[in-house]
Design brief:
The chain has 196 residues and is of the alpha/beta class. 10% of the residues lie in helices and 13% in strands. It contains 4 helices and 9 strands; from the N terminus they run ββαααβαββββββ.
Amino acid sequence: KAGGGDACVTACGCAGSCPKPDTVVAPELDALVSPTTPTANEACETLTCKDLVTTADGGEVGGDYCDYIRGTKDRSTATNMKLGNKGIVSIHRCAFAGFDNLQSLWLNDNQLTTLPAGIFDGLSGLQTLDLHNNRLMTLPAGIFDGLSGLQTLDLNNNRLATLPAAIFDGLSSLNSMELGNNNQLTCRPAVPSKHV
């Protein structure tokens, strides 16, 4: 912090007020090593469709998504997931666990204000990610890590105000990125020149 309080230089180099840091208290190591504690994948597999994707009306999200979650369809066969305009207000970090062959994911025209860290883990084949027309205010650092095949990213028309400095660094295949209509976004992280 500069001047003892109100202003600081953000990770991307812009002056502004410092956000309050998230405080994370790690549990005791013994609690993590319990033989009855499920692994992250096992914990994800026990969640229901409503646990994974929360809609404004409290119902299940429409389309094929819940069929994949219930196991009536094989997640590994899904290549396109259209979850746009479904009234989604929040998504669990496990929402796309097991969707290893997903190439296109549309989450546009929903009411998302944030995305959890790790939500796109395991989606290395993802080529298109559409998040336009949501209410996203910021994104966690590393959210796009592992998406080296991503070619199109649409974050247009959200409420983004700040983004972590290196958020786009791993997107080596990116051909198109939309960040327009994020009126509060005054500091954009660097994007390799071929993507601008």
